[in-house]
Amino acid sequence: MIIQLTIHPLDVNFSKMKIKEIDEGYVNPQHNKNNRPPHNPNPKPVEIQQTNQFKDEIALDLPITKDQLNILDKENPMTWGHKCWFRLVSAQSNGNDPELCAGVARGIMNCSISKTNKDITIEIDKFHSEKNPVKVQKTTPIPNNLNN
Predict the structure, then answer these.
(1) Strand order in 103-115's β-sheet?
(2) What is the C-alpha radius of gyration for the chain, rounded to an integer number of angstroms?
(3) What does residue 94 show for φ and ψ, rounded to 5 degrees?
(4) Beta bridge partners of 137
(5) Which terminal residue of the chain has fewer beta carbons within 10 Å of its beta carbon, N or C?
(6) For 62-89, what is each residue's pLDDT tens digit?
């Protein structure tokens, strides 16, 4: 799913900049890539349009491992959060620059996975807001290689 976001204030033109999403790790320090799926933001900065808008992709095809699926037998739904940070970078940036400009938005990406006998449901709430929620959900069959 691709969402379009707007940077405020609108009377400032950010189109000469790009924006880069940075993962700052799991909210709960006991969570890690072995017991929760990782957050892999786009490594390249994205363009900011003249309208101060940029696009962000929310991936619902999280890589689920057999170990993580086993956790769902004890903890269903499995929940976790990632700390995310959107930063402005120069328009010439390729994403590897050590110097980043001011932060635009910092937030928590809340995730959950639930399981039935045959399906996995993934739900992501990327920019938690009661007024304008950005929640996405996807249900898929459990892959045969994990359903043993």
Answers:
(1) 46-47, 17-26, 78-90, 103-115, 119-125, 135-141
(2) 17
(3) -105, 5
(4) 123
(5) C
(6) 667 777 778 888 889 889 999 888 888 8
